[in-house]
Design goal:
148 residues
Amino acid sequence: MAEDIKSAIDEGVAQNKAATDRAARAAKDATDTMQAGAEQARSAFSEKVLDPAKRAGEAMKESGGKVAEGGATIGKTMIDQAEQNAREAFAAMREAASAKDLTQVMKIQGDYLREQSQRSMSQAREIGEMIMKFGKDAVAPLRGDGPK
């Protein structure tokens, strides 16, 4: 009888060990599956969200740099134009001051106004073209058209 009890206990232990081993394998398989799923989710998140966000941030940084560069160039050009206009105005005033009569003053003033009008149109066109070019250059990185 003691032998039967010992045999029953050994069989119970073996069954418990087998059940524990099956449960451990099932838990390991479930853990491995969850780990693979988490890795796949992390990879997909990185590919679908993080990488595009990083590229967008880099494009915005590049675009901002181009905007700043363009603004500085346009500002310098406008200062150069204002300086040229002031020189032309003073030259016309000097010429008018040395005029012999009112007719000569009127002619100098008319010539200055005509030249200044043409100069203003040319300067406005130059600034407009610069703004368009810098605008295109600034938007290019955001559209993905920038240099690779």
